[in-house]
Write a structure and sequence with these properties.
The protein has two helices and six strands, in the order E-E-H-E-E-H-E-E. With about 110 residues, it is of the alpha+beta class. The strands form two sheets. The protein has a four-stranded mixed beta sheet with strand order 1-5-6-2. The chain is elongated, with a radius of gyration of 17 Å. The mean pLDDT is about 85.
Length: about 110
């Protein structure tokens, strides 16, 4: 399925707008304890473990959004937005949320 942050698809005509689709993934507090407990992974101010988990959460959110678009009969998602939020009691969790518009194009 074609996925883009733009509102159009170059060289293609969007024939149907099927609705907004969303995917979300939440990293629990344990990931932060594990990451900050493993300071040895931090090199040059970056944490490989943290980046890996954020990437995994982003993949889950995108997969969920794509599945919802497929259920609507879409062959593309346009206008994709990616957001990261700290949620939960005392900011103990990180949420990755992606949204876009499911469309059909030809």
């Amino acid at each position: 399925m074609l996925q883009t942050t733009t509102s159009t698809i170059d060289g293609k005509e969007i024939t149907d707008y099927l609705g907004v689709v969303v995917g979300e993934a939440i990293l629990g507090a344990n990931i932060f304890k594990d990451i900050f407990g493993a300071i040895r992974d931090i090199v040059g101010g970056r944490s490989a473990a943290y980046e890996k988990e954020m990437g995994r959460a982003r993949e889950i959110a995108f997969d969920e959004m794509q599945a919802k678009a497929s259920e609507l009969g879409a062959n593309a998602i346009v206008g994709i937005d990616i957001d990261y939020e700290v949620v939960g009691q005392q900011g103990g969790m990180m949420m990755v949320s992606v949204s876009g518009t499911a469309v059909r194009y030809r």
